[in-house]
């Protein structure tokens, strides 16, 4: 009996230590990237400085690391500056560090306290609350979006499912990095519009209906950037191209949306937010003078 008590005590301490370690690890991963003010005079001459902020949305399991390299790269070169971190809990409780008051080329980092669910749906509600909060409390009326993987899927559903956001938060440029908008089609299929009739993805068909009902009366540009794993032409290793390319079919009902697509060879899913050539592409899209 005494031996069993000792074993139970050791197990209790071990489990407690493991839980503490996991909590500390999660806290570290959700610390948020450090912001740094930029000096426009030191920035490249090719850069245009705009008051339209850019919201960064991570995908499944994403955390500070997701956009850490991107943010630091742009800050070091005085191209853009991280001004806010917004954390949101599974119960839609929002915490904020920093402030947005019209800083030029501002980056706002969104972090989910927990985004390891089997479905993206819990984060849809959380993200919708974040977007409404930023609009209401900080007066953000227009924004760019950079979203990786399920982060883009969540954004589409959060925005298209809210008449309030459609009315009060205008979208400018959307950059999707390996975002699956349709998840039932095989990775062996090349894109063509008629596949829309073969889709068994209820979430995708819900977006189709919402997209058709959207009273869009201003221009938006979408950039759909995908990777192609070495030795494969149709996937980045995690998201098949077809599941991202179905975005073309989804937006066909909206004449005000311009669509651009690019596939990067030898680029994995996780490299889409860190490869130098992609960071340069994003820089040009959002802040290049000729855009």
List keywords for this structure.
single chain, 291 residues, alpha/beta, Rossmann fold, 8-stranded mixed sheet, 37% helix, globular, Hydrolase
SSE map:
Blueprint: H1 2-29, E1 54-57, H2 64-76, E2 81-88, E3 94-98, E4 106-112, H3 121-138, E5 142-148, H4 150-160, H5 163-168, E6 170-177, H6 202-213, E7 220-228, H7 241-245, H8 247-250, E8 257-265, H9 276-287
Helix pairs in contact: 3-4
Protein name: Hydrolase
Pfam family, one: DUF915
InterPro entries: AB_hydrolase_fold (IPR029058), DUF915_hydro-like (IPR010315)
Question: Describe it for me?
Answer:
One of its GO terms (molecular function) is hydrolase activity. InterPro entries: AB_hydrolase_fold, DUF915_hydro-like. Keywords: Hydrolase. This is Hydrolase. By secondary structure, the chain is α/β, with parallel strands linked by helices. It has one domain (48-287): Alpha/Beta hydrolase fold, catalytic domain (Rossmann fold, 3-Layer(aba) Sandwich), CATH 3.40.50. Helix content is 37%, strand content 20%. It is built from 9 helices and 8 strands. The chain has helices at 2-29, 64-76, 121-138, 150-160, 163-168, 202-213, 241-245, 247-250, 276-287; strands at residues 54-57, 81-88, 94-98, 106-112, 142-148, 170-177, 220-228, 257-265. It has an 8-stranded mixed β-sheet with strand order 3-2-4-1-5-6-7-8, with helices on both faces. Helix 6 links the parallel strand 6 (170-177) and strand 7 (220-228). The longest helix is centred in the first third of the chain and has 28 residues, at 2-29. The radius of gyration is 21 Å and the shape is globular.
């Amino acid at each position: 009996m005494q031996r069993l008590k000792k074993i139970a005590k050791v197990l209790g301490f071990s489990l407690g230590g493991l839980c503490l370690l996991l909590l500390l690890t999660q806290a570290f991963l959700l610390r948020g990237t450090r912001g740094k003010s930029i000096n426009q005079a030191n920035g490249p001459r090719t850069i245009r400085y705009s008051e339209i902020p850019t919201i960064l949305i991570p995908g499944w399991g994403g955390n500070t690391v997701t956009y850490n390299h991107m943010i630091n790269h742009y800050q070091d070169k005085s191209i853009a500056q991280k001004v806010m971190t917004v954390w949101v809990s599974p119960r839609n409780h929002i915490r904020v560090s920093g402030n947005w008051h019209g800083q030029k080329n501002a980056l706002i980092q969104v972090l989910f306290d927990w985004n390891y669910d089997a479905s993206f749906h819990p984060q849809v509600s959380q993200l919708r609350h974040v977007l409404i909060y930023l609009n209401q409390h900080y007066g953000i009326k227009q924004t760019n979006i950079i979203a990786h993987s399920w982060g883009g899927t969540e954004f589409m559903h959060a925005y298209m499912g809210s008449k309030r956001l459609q009315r009060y938060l205008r979208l400018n440029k959307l950059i999707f990095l390996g975002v699956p908008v349709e998840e039932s089609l095989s990775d062996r299929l090349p894109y063509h519009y008629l596949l829309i009739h073969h889709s068994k993805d209820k979430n995708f068909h819900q977006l189709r209906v919402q997209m058709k009902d959207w009273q869009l009366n201003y221009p938006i540009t979408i950039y759909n950037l995908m990777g192609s794993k070495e030795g494969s032409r149709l996937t980045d290793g995690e998201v098949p191209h077809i599941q991202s390319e179905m975005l073309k079919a989804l937006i066909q009902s909206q004449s005000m949306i311009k669509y651009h697509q690019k596939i990067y060879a030898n680029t994995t899913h996780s490299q889409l937010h860190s490869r130098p050539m992609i960071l340069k592409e994003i820089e040009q899209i959002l802040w290049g003078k000729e855009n």
